[in-house]
Amino acid sequence: MTEGDTVDIIKDLKVKGSSTALERGTVGKNIRLTDDPAEIVGRTDKVTDLLLRAGFPKEA
């Protein structure tokens, strides 16, 4: 994965601190890589600035 890629969420996830849940197949847009190789930051239609562990998204 590189910066600016689009990813799909592969598992239903609860969003910490929000009543929103992300369902499998949700598209994350314009991802950014962090200093930690196990984390990425992205956006969805429901949540902005979402921090994801690298095991949950796959390249779209």
Largest sheet: 5 strands, antiparallel
Total DSSP E strands:
7
Q: What order do the SSEs take from the amino end to the carboxyl end, as H and E?
A: EEEEEEE
The CATH class assignment is Mainly Beta
For the residues shown, what is the average pLDDT? 91
Helix content: under 10%
Q: Give me the secondary-structure category.
A: mainly beta
Annotated CATH architecture? Roll
Q: How much is the radius of gyration in Å? A: 10 Å
Strand order of the largest sheet: 6-5-4-1-7
Low-confidence stretches: none
General description of the model:
The chain has strands at residues 7-9, 13-14, 21-22, 27-33, 39-43, 50-53, 57-59. It contains no helices and seven strands. Strand 5 (39-43) and strand 6 form a beta hairpin. The chain has a single domain (7-59), classed as SH3 type barrels (Roll). With 60 residues, the protein is mainly β. A five-stranded antiparallel β-sheet has the order 6-5-4-1-7, with no helix packed on it. The mean pLDDT is 91.
Sum this structure up briefly.
The chain has 60 residues and is an all-beta fold. The chain has strands spanning 7-9, 13-14, 21-22, 27-33, 39-43, 50-53, 57-59. The protein has no helices and seven strands.
Secondary structure: elements and pairs:
Blueprint: E1 7-9, E2 13-14, E3 21-22, E4 27-33, E5 39-43, E6 50-53, E7 57-59
Antiparallel strand pairs: 1-4, 1-7, 2-3, 4-5, 5-6
